[in-house]
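Table S5 (text form). Sequence records supplied for joint modeling of the two-component complex.
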Amino acid sequence: MSTAAESAKTAEMAAVAERYGLSRSSARPEFRGYLRDLWGRRQFIYTYARARTYALYAGARLGSIWQLLTPLLNAAVYYLAFGVLLGTAKGIHNYPAFLICGMFVFTYTQRSMTEGSRAISTNLSLIRTLHFPRATLPLAYVVNELNQMFISMGILLVMVGVSDGLALRWFLIIPALLLQTMFNIGMTLIFARLGTFLTDISQLLPFITRTWLYASGIFFSIPDKLAALDAPGWVIHVLALNPISAYIDIARRALLEEHARHALPNAWPIAVGWAVISLVGGFIYFWRAEDRYGRG
Amino acid sequence: MAVAETAAPTPAATTPASDAVPTVIADNVNIIYKVTAGSGGKGTAASAFRRILKRQDRPTIREVHAVKNCSFTAYKGDAIGLIGRNGSGKSTLLRAIAGLLPPASGAIYTGGQPSLLGVNAAMMNDLTGDRNVVLGCLAMGMSPEEIEERYPEIVEFSGIGEFIDLPMSTYSSGMSARLKFAIASAKTHDILLVDEALATGDAEFRVRSEQKIKDLRDQAGTVFLVSHSLDVVLDTCNRAIWLDKGVLRMDGGVKEVVDAYNKEATGKR
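The corresponding structure-token record, covering 565 residues in total, follows.
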């Protein structure tokens, strides 16, 4: 068969298909329809997330108490390592709360990314069996992590409440978490697509997130560190652009007393900017490969 | 390619009456799987990074050309049996028609949303049967109210009985096949794709599910059936497509195709 004849036949087939109102079986839906579809499956996202949490702890004897224990144990380990042994606590008021707040915020984004990178590949057989917008899977993973974050934040609020007393500025944690969740949804979608087609990403991610961990001012106060190093004034403005630093900083502003001295410049606008960029970019990036997730 | 065999002997079955409405058109479809073959080892972070930079695939990734240059048209009222030896691309082709496995080149056009009923339907094994019913129905786009309404019917049809609140990992393969089939057939379908769904169940379930397929076929425009049981194909289909190593070998009336397939199978022995 010559290629000319073949392409003529292809065009003819397409014409017949159109005449009878047939559509390509694995075509990518248009973006708005895709979002509407996703909204329609919100119940699936929620149920799937709950089922996953359930399955995760079903084997453990303590069951879902681990959701509470894991962040508590994490907090204890970090405090022991950085607060007591390494002595980075110098000059920071209520260092345990400072450290644990940073750690919880960081873990939320980190886990969304690493779990998201496996969202498609671990559900490949489900994807090859049923029809549903694929973005529901990474979104369900974010719901899981958000749920864990609520528990972690509850623990932290109790801690801060005991040591510093209640405060009205605590309500700022709501917009702070909302912005970070928007950012995380985008990152999860991006890494879900990356992890599907570049399977090596899941090997590389631990190194990326660990580097990010040390660069984001979780164990130490960035302004103090820069002052000690005698760095020029613009450096802090560059470091403040780091999205994780921004989300940690707005959470600390909400929860900690006397944080103003350690606060980063423009944390709120930077947090809003990254949330919008990540959310929009993530959805578009993930959607553009929607027709290819079953393959490979 | 065995083009001559495909086109020549069976005009009667494939060219329908002038008013026939096509529901599925496959145009020169090629499907290529990428599989990770053997133990590739995890490699170090550095080598993984290099591979990503060079956009190389893992050295152990192999491509499998599962369906080659396949073209056909299915019409309303057709019940088409897909026959062929193991690994000839039958299930792969069904998944492509369902839109679950995108073809590498060529196109498949369908009217409405095809639905795949298969034993390979994956559910969550850690979860109980009833949670899987709800999840599966939600994934198919049913509303919670609808699920509540259909739930007893699904469980009844599956015949799982009291085991419905045990985790699926404790089910036998026959039991999970029954449940999966029951979930997937809870919805009404325009184009129905049945993949060997009847093979694993016991005799009683086989009778019930064959009846269910007949019911669904009466509602649906078009049915595709993959089966190794040629009797089932002869019983339920009016047309058959024979796939051999991913190539469409023959497409025509069910009797002729099954006879030709049988002749070759016995001839080789």
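Note: DSSP finds 13 helices and one strand in chain A.
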